[in-house]
Amino acid sequence: MLRYLAVFALMLPVHAALGGPPVEGLWLTQDHDGVIAVEPCDTGGGKLCARIEGFFLDKASDPTPVDYRGVSQCHLPMITDAVEVEPNLWKGHITNPRNGDVWRVELYPERDGTLALRGYLGVPLLGQTQTWTRYDGKVPEDCRLTKPAGGDVVTR
Q1: What is the reported pLDDT for 124?
Q2: Which residues contact 111 (CB under 8 A, 6 or more apart)?
Q3: What's the distance, Cα to Cα, between the start and end of the chain in Å?
Q4: Rounded to two decimals, what is the model's pTM?
Q5: 27, 91, 136, 144: which has the highest count of C-beta atoms within 10 A?
Q6: Is the pLDDT of residue 63 over 70?
Q7: Is 109 exposed, middle or buried (0-12, 13-18, 19+ CB in 10 A)?
Q8: φ, ψ for residue 7 (rounded to 5)?
Q9: Rounded distance, CA 77 to CA 43, Å?
Q10: Sequence-ordered list of residues with C-beta below 8 angstroms from that of 96, at least 6 positions apart, any chain
């Protein structure tokens, strides 16, 4: 039994002891198809919010992506209630703009400068983690970005 507990403990993220960069800022999604802004919520209370700040289009003439309700994804809120539950670990809820599903979410910075975002239902063990990287590029007010020639996106 002790062996199983040890294996389970190794599967959990070790975020509090690792430290890492600030969670706030612009982040490039794992698939390099969007830029997400993470910042303190306007409502205060020490909560973090996240919204779609930009999206990469194949061609400049492509239409602006819309969510499941037909609303523009430009500046669309995704996280509105993340609270720091321990040092370097934020928990809240995230909305999938494609279908409106709401998941629990954990955000924690990694030592390598990336941001881990784990979405899950029920318990974190049954979720999926994405790794986001800092985005150093400029994002226009209309959120529309075109993929650079060669496909490399500016990250830190």
Answers
A1: 83
A2: 18, 19, 20
A3: 43
A4: 0.82
A5: 27
A6: yes
A7: buried
A8: -65, -45
A9: 13
A10: 102, 103
